[in-house]
Write a structure and sequence with these properties.
The protein contains three helices and four strands. By secondary structure, it is α+β, with helices and mostly antiparallel strands. Helix 1 runs antiparallel to helix 2.
């Protein structure tokens, strides 16, 4: 099973590290990452494997919000993400 994490906000040092560390602490494996800095803003999409995760997706969302509090972060199951983007 997979999930998608999106992160958007003012660029600063350590965003990717904080998100990846929170995923590792939750036993979620990072599969793919794409990120970009647009002027002063950071945008990232991360695909994670949640098969062995030690918490629910809602709890991961909460942990990320606490550890990266100055960014807009969303976590959603891959099935929901795919359904939302189906033509």
């Amino acid at each position: 099973m997979k999930a998608v994490i999106t992160v958007i906000g003012k660029d600063m040092v350590g965003i990717l590290a904080r998100v990846a560390t929170t995923c590792a602490e939750s036993n979620a494996n990072v599969i793919e990452v794409t990120q970009s800095v647009l002027q002063d803003y950071f945008a990232m999409i991360m695909m994670i494997d949640i098969s062995g995760m030690n918490c629910e997706i809602d709890e991961l969302q909460k942990r990320l919000a606490e550890n990266v509090s100055d960014m807009m972060i969303h976590v959603m199951h891959e099935d929901i993400f795919n359904s939302m983007h189906r033509i």
